[in-house]
Design brief:
alpha/beta; eleven-stranded mixed beta sheet; six-stranded mixed beta sheet
């Protein structure tokens, strides 16, 4: 793909263009190591590295255009310089123009919230695909274009990758795209330049405070997504969440709500709930779903409401939704030959963990033991560790604190942070086993038939990040193997 600078430099934040405004641009690049002939290089000032220092190298490697907030001391006659206030915020606008505004050529729906983003987006993709539409999916688990799947690298990719994916979707005749919108993506401008047909809010709880600093900043990041929606879009929010209505304030989009416990535009009632699924009454229609738990009732209602707002007949929605299976790594249930129940879930925030444990508590008979395995990621929000520890210990009969993705931290120190949140009355419930596989094996050995084991935190992940190396590790496969051995 090749464009002229004039054709893609429509960002309103451009202060000045020095040099040839008709310079040829063949690629957009954020990493100076990827610069080639006729590349446009974005000199982003990051939190740890200022890419302005790599401008000479980018030019030497063939860059034809440099987007920067500070002009270099030495200017090259053969290079064009685009001066902007904030390079990071400009990338999405350039990328959208370079890839010919792909988000405007399909129906793009963004889903944001602390929990439920992946499940909601995946169900929307599966629903619209089953209805006969060619669709795209951008999620924490995977990126899908039609029926081609790519491994996901970020919940929301960088703007260049994002627009490139959507351009591929357009080339593949996709008419819908469903994507997760992370709070990081909003703040960093990764969704700048995209045209959304709708935005969905699931919920907001304690998470990512290592990045946002305060919970108020985290809320503002989510809200900014809805503030940026166009007037012809819809904004759909969970009214049962205490911050749900905040998302709609000042949003120019048409506003709608959904709820299980409040009066709302779209409502739902749980009639039956067990380890096999849910019987829900949605808009006066009773429908059985294979998904489990109250949190999935919210996800299903959000999907129903979104599809209805996109013009799909409600009976068609319910018919096709009822045929869907479970989402990868989200409350996946396994049974051992001896009758032990294992549940693998991605719950990695206090609220998500409490939701999963509450679901189990609601379904269980009380005659069996509930044993949870939980950990917290390294180099991430430390404030949630004691809260996670407290929730896991309070709501389980036994709990094993273990490694999640320790990254560059000492896993034992992370476990101690979790231990510090446990109420003294629950100390006797806690075991600490750093090796996650040993923790799973121990949980199975301690369990009797009909007991329940929850493996929380990693869900769909197939690796464990330790000191910068991603070691193969899949909770689901390890649980299955240990079940077979015992």
């Amino acid at each position: 793909m090749s464009k002229y600078l004039n054709d893609i430099a429509h960002y309103t934040g451009i202060k000045e263009i020095l040099g040839n405004s008709n310079a040829v641009v063949k690629t957009l690049v954020l990493d100076s190591r990827q610069v080639g002939e006729d590349a446009l290089f974005f000199a982003v000032k990051g939190s740890s590295v200022d890419a302005h220092q790599f401008i000479p190298k980018a030019i030497a490697d063939g860059a034809s255009v440099i987007v920067c907030s500070d002009l270099p001391k030495e200017l090259h006659d053969t290079v064009s310089y685009v001066l902007v206030d904030d390079v990071q915020q400009s990338v999405g606008y350039f990328a959208s123009e370079f890839y010919e505004k792909p988000s405007e050529k399909m129906t793009l729906v963004g889903v944001t919230g602390t929990n439920g983003k992946t499940s909601t987006c995946t169900m929307l993709y599966n629903l619209f695909t089953s209805l006969g539409y060619t669709c795209g999916l951008i999620s924490t688990v995977e990126y899908i274009i039609g029926k081609t799947t790519y491994t996901s690298t970020h919940t929301t990719p960088d703007p260049i990758r994002l627009n490139a994916l959507m351009h591929e979707m357009q080339e593949a005749s996709c008419t819908y795209c469903f994507m997760e919108v992370s709070s990081h993506a909003v703040v960093q401008g990764r969704i700048n330049g995209l045209h959304f047909a709708g935005g969905v809010f699931t919920n907001i709880t304690h998470d990512h405070l290592d990045y946002h600093g305060t919970f108020d900043n985290y809320i503002k990041a989510k809200k900014k997504f809805f503030d940026q929606l166009p007037v012809d879009a819809f904004a759909l929010t969970n009214k049962d969440d205490r911050n749900g209505q905040i998302m709609l304030q000042n949003s120019p989009a048409a506003r709608y709500t959904y709820a299980l416990q409040s009066a709302a535009d779209f409502t739902c009632k749980i009639l039956e709930s067990d380890f096999e699924g849910l019987l829900l009454k949605i808009e006066s229609e009773e429908t059985w779903f294979a998904l489990i738990g109250k949190f999935n009732a919210y996800n299903l209602l959000a999907v129903y409401a979104t599809a209805f707002l996109l013009g799909i007949d409600r009976f068609e929605i319910l018919t096709h939704l009822s045929k869907q299976g479970r989402v990868n790594g989200r409350f996946e249930v396994y049974r051992s030959p001896k009758g032990i129940i294992g549940i693998v879930d991605y719950a990695h925030t206090p609220d998500a963990l409490e939701n999963v444990l509450s679901t189990i508590q609601h379904i269980r008979t009380g005659n069996e033991q509930l044993l949870s395995i939980a950990g917290c990621g390294g180099n991430r929000d430390k404030e949630k560790r004691p809260v996670m520890g407290k929730v896991a210990a309070r709501m389980s009969d036994k709990v094993i604190f273990t490694s999640d993705n320790p990254r560059n931290e000492d896993p034992n120190a992370i476990i101690e942070d979790m231990q510090n949140g446990v109420d003294p009355l629950d100390y006797k419930k806690v075991l600490k086993i750093t090796d996650r596989k040993e923790a799973i094996k121990t949980a199975v050995m301690l369990s009797k038939p009909k007991d329940i084991i929850l493996l929380a935190g990693k869900g769909h992940e197939t690796y464990q990040d330790i000191n910068g190396i991603k070691h193969p590790f899949d909770d689901r496969q390890i649980l299955i193997d240990i079940f077979k051995e015992n």
